[in-house]
Amino acid sequence: MSWRLDSVNCMALGEGAAPDQGLAEMIRNELGTIVEVNHVDYREAAEVLGRKFRSVKHSDVMWVLHELLEDQSDDVEVRHVVIDPGSYRVQGPSTLVHPPRTECWDRYFNRLESKGAPGLDELDRTTTEVVKLLAEPQAHDQKRKGLVMGNVQSGKTRHFSGVIARAMDAGYRFVIVLSGMNNNLREQTQSRLDGDLFIDPEAWVRLTGQDEDFTKKSNLPATLGRKSALWASAVVKKNITRLENLRSSLSKMPVEMRRRCPILIIDDEADQATPNTEAAKNRVSAINRKLREVWGLVEVGSYVAYTATPFANVLMDPDDDEDLFPSDFVYSLAPGHGYFGAERVFGLAGTDPDHPGLDEDGLDMVRTVTDADELKPPSKAEDRDFFDPELPPSLVDAVEWFIVASAVRRVRGQHDHSSMLVHTTYYTAPHFAMQRRLRALCEEMVTQVQDGLDKRFKESWDRESDRVIYPGGADTPAWGDVWAQIPGVLHDVEVIVDNGVSEDRLNYDDDRPRTVIAVGGGTLSRGLTLEGLVVSYFTRTSNTYDTLMQMGRWFGYRTGYEDLPRIWLAKGLDTDYAFLARVEKELREEIASISDSEHTPRDVGVRVRTHPGRLEITGAGKMANAKLVQIGMSGVLQQTFIVDGRPDTTAHNLRTVEKLLAGHHFQPIPWTEKRALQITHGVSTRAVARFLADFRYQEDQRTFTRPDLAGAVRQWLLGFAERNPWNVVLVGNVTDKDGSLSIAGTTVSRLGRSPLKGSTVAKLNFKVMTSPEDRVIDIDPARYGSSPVGSLDDQISVRRRFGDEQGLLILYPLGTHPETTSPSAARMSMPQGVGEDLLAFAIVFPYVTGDGNASDTFVSVRPTPEAVTDDESEDDLLGVEE
């Protein structure tokens, strides 16, 4: 898909024969100089030129002006972009940005070319396209906000550096790069820009440096005054103090000076800290507020968000003009040739719930870690200081392959950086113990190699060397050649810790190539590039798409060693990444499908597929504006782990349960001895839907209290599962030490549960209500026999195969007296005053076959027209409570 802008007819500007070539060239150069120095557009420049050189015929100036504008406004094609066409229909002959010169871009491009950087033709094209979408720097009071969706480790810094270069050539004066929240990422970004872009001291004024963020001393009026032709740059961490320094400095510039000083803001890692995390509470988070204030001081300019995980950005409120929703354009930056992304590495998850698995296989470079539990640090900080476990065999395997793979690269003549990532925990103290263990392992390897022992390395070579085929069918080197390089690799290998408290930094600026094993957590999980990354050992997880994808530092380009990278992952993470590959693919297809259309970023939200299990799209605070546009509940489990214990609420909820079970009788379940279980069958979907609508939830149990979600769930039940029968299971204790409760003609012993500390009668937080086997609690084990049920995936499979498309509602009567519950370090006794009828529940929705809508869920800040397909009124859906 593409967007085209028709040529602008400028013939009315002047007529007559063309001036001679020398005069035309002089006029062209003078016009460009006036545009640059006076910060005006070409039309104003022509008027200035006419007054300045009275000997030049007006018709000659107009002819050259016409030629310039016609060159600039030829049919322009910008691909893979959703725009607001209204933003690009401005007064005057130019509606897209066209740099009048190429000085800064040429210098930057030549710098990359001298380094042998790949993909420069694509960089040339895509940076041109993005710059065309920026605010016209000579158009007073024009501002634009956009988003460039890149890929993790795909060269975003190189790309926005090119955009900056072209923007400066177009007339921008001041570039602000917002670079993450960590010092090491800001420093790495500053270093790269200093080395490749801000290299002419006569043209650039650097307001920040390698070791200095933006300060109160920065004097913008002196730097960017009317008589100045300099470019200014600042690489600023997203930190309250630094952003306030920036806001204060901008506020000291007179309004007219800011109008004559077009500003480009590049927001790197724009999904981190920039979105408002307090939107759900109708507040504005601190960093978001500061960024709004900075943007509010820009009179002419552009804000461009760069991120590979734009979920939070596209779910911002599009109607809040002060916020940074990309209202003018969303541009999808395709990865270049040779990029290793989630789809290529892990494969592409399928969408058919009845046939789970991959639609496309990934490369055979992922290894499952099954022995990582011993690396999980204690929860208490004082215990973590002494946490020093032995290296598990899987990590030893990973280090061995890193040494071998680095040696293979040297055999191939690749003597640049080679890196290994070890990321097992966010906590910093265990990183140093891990460093000591890894250094000891490397020293042990050195001793073995000095003794001529190659066994461990040869076994690693035999296991891994032919698992991934080198592109183009290059020959695998002989083992003898690889073995000859291993002593040199071990001599060079360093083990460093890069975290928030370490003195080490993963710095590749030295002239010498580095062979490094980097141990870390938070600072290595976003933005930071590990040069020549060959091996990743990764056991930490996350519950959100964006964080999990950003922690995948192994994505990127591996030119010349595509067969060597290996990734050791905790069990289940490979499935998560294959699902995220599906999400990413659909997001790009969504952008492509609505480009070149009448839809704008404001009125058409980009849909994001939701995960059927534990993963959330982004942090809850950033999801306040998200709306369901399609929902699927097949096999989904939800539970009320936060409950309201006030007596009037508990009494109401018991009556709601009694109404649900009217006419039904419980029978004992014989296949468990650990809990007293009773079951009744054949409850109708409509009765369950009424129960869900009538039950009184604690307000923070957002799964059930969000009106859009609650209404969509009931709509799904009545639209897709109306004929599915339900089982209701009553879970009791085997003893009556916590008392008993009468429900629907039967008596059950209450469960003893202790709420988390800080709980109150009005908000009892139990963190979790279900037990691992509850998803299949109503299915006789004799039916599934030897089928495993130890993991969540196993239980989902058993329910799909043996659940007979029945829904399941599980009721948990809870003990309410303080003396019957057992407090711990994290939990408390039940508070006084809780209602005697206290109940919680879990629900497992039936698997529904035959319709994709039954299992696929998407959210957006704007429902696309295609998503609004149901013309039932809300009154038909058992009444959504507002």
Quick description:
With 882 residues, the chain is α/β, with parallel strands linked by helices. It is 33% helix and 17% strand.
Describe it.
It contains 26 helices and 33 strands. Mean pLDDT is 82; it is low at 1-16, 90-94 and 863-882. It has an eight-stranded mixed sheet, sandwiched between helices. Strands 14-20-18-15-17-16 form a six-stranded parallel sheet. It has a six-stranded mixed sheet with strand order 23-32-31-27-26-25. The chain is an alpha/beta fold.
Radius of gyration: 31 Å
Sheet of most strands: 8 strands, mixed
Query: How much of the sequence is in beta strands?
Result: 15-25%
Give the % helix. Answer: 25-40%
Termini, distance in Å?
Answer: 41 Å
Structural class assignment: alpha/beta
> Helix count?
26
* DSSP strand tally: 33
